[in-house]
Amino acid sequence: MVTASQAVEAGSAAVGTVNILLVHGANADGSGWRGVYEILKKDGYNVSVVQQ
After folding, report:
1. Which terminus of the chain has a lower count of CB atoms within 10 Å, N or C?
2. Which residue from 49, 46, 44 is spatially nearest to 12, judged by alpha carbons?
3. N- to C-terminal Cα distance for the chain?
4. How many other β-carbons are positioned within 10 Å of the β-carbon of residue 8?
């Protein structure tokens, strides 16, 4: 059995790292997040944009 804390430790990035997932709304794609993505990356965040 794996506890929540063990699962977090096993799957965590470096301490202090923040991961952000940007998801677009209906009738759009992830390109609308480009400006936000670039700002967040510049500020040191790990950023992913979902494309569907």
Report:
1. N
2. 46
3. 34
4. 9
In the DSSP assignment, the letter for residue 35 is H
pTM: 0.64
Neighbours of 46 (CB within 10 A): 13
List of residues 6+ apart from 21 with CB closer than 8 A: 47, 48, 49, 50
pLDDT (0 to 100) of residue 51: 85
25: enclosing H helix or E strand: none
Rounded alpha-carbon distances, angstroms, from residue 45 to 6, 23, 51: 24, 16, 19
Task: Dig out the tokens for 51 from the structure.
Answer: 């494309």
